[in-house]
Amino acid sequence: MADARQTDRHAFDLYETLRHGSFLRALAACVEAQIAPRLREIERIVERNQWKVLEAFRACGVSDYHFAPSTGYGLDDRGRDTLEAVYARTFRAEAALVRPQIVSGTHAIALVLFGLLRPGDELVYITGRPYDTLEEVIGVRGERAGSLRDYGVGYRAVPLGPDGWIDEAAVREALTPRTKVVAIQRSCGYDDRPSFSVDAIGEMVRFVKSLRPDVLVFVDNCYGEFTETREPTEVGVDILAGSLIKNPGGGLAKTGGYVVGRAELVEQAAARLTAPGIAREVGATLGATFDFYLGFFLAPHVVGEALKGAVFAAALLERLGFRTRPRWDEPRTDLIQRIVFGAPEPLIAFAQGVQQASPVDAHVVPQPSPMPGYADPVIMAAGTFIQGASMELTFDGPVRPPYVGYLQGGLTYAHVKVGVLTAVDKLLADGFLTPPTEGSNLTLQRENRHNIP
């Protein structure tokens, strides 16, 4: 009986279950002492954003009858319409479209692009190539069935300059009389570049509008909501879009996406979701409204937890010799933590370690595989309650050089910490990191370098 009690006690101690638990316990303690000031800065951002959301709920008169579902056409759904008013007020925009019928961030972005662009118009991305899943929407890859290119919409992507900023000379040259929409991707996606802050996006908007005041500026806001105290619509962006199974869903939204911006532009996107003439007037909520309201209210806190986890991950991995972006002490404008592995095997092993620390499908062993919308095989750890929800702790990356993985999300800081430590423990056990030698101390281990080219 005493032995059973001892076994149970160890089962509730993370470090007792890890093969290199003693080393990782000491390392985590040093990291948490190091990052404590940065975590307090994140808490101040959370507080500001929590007030912003609360003020919108109060100003829009949210009441419990707004949580009632609608069916059929969804005509006169006051809960849906009030939720959209809450979003618009929070984002300091004129209007919003927040619907369970929007199936992903890619879908939300496609609604905007197809809503705004007409045959003969041109789309110009000024932050380099967009995220992989948009290439088939635009028509630069795949069968192009129903893509923008099929509808006669032109497209250019202007690479960033060597300093990571927009190439202003190239942008000036790329804008033509046909250019109707200039697009900015806030997050780095799978590119080797920093994500852009709201201030930086504001500078881009001012530059574009100085050249062409009539051009519409669109922002892919995925992964960025509530990471700062302002959103891109507060610095001149005309319209933006995102996913509810990322930041603004707060981990509760089971599906959905949103579009926020100038009223006439949101209406054009809504007409693509439903049909011209009915646009935002229809769309049953089918019981999703309560999760959308509560998730949005919790989103500032949940995003803060994920940001804290990303800071912990960066600091710990930097001590082990990995290159990360952003570094632990750099400003953050999205949830994504980029980690360079340099070879496919440690990338895959890290993903498998994160999966082992997942609440759902922890027994599954992820392997690289083709995925719809992606050009290369992708390794993905996603033991989430909601399929594909990157507000929950996930890790993924295309299996292509330089073999970079992307850690994002986490409903609680503690879970991100457990996931990262479990993944690092697997790297140590599989020989991709040099385990600490007998009697070595943590100070020496700070100079440890992974043996990956």
TrEMBL record:
Origin superkingdom: Bacteria
Q: Which PANTHER family does its entry note?
A: CYS OR MET METABOLISM PYRIDOXAL-PHOSPHATE-DEPENDENT ENZYME
What is the primary gene name for this protein? ynbB
Q: What is this protein called?
A: Aluminum resistance family protein
Q: One Pfam family of this protein, by short name?
A: Met_gamma_lyase
Q: Which organism is it from?
A: Calditerricola satsumensis
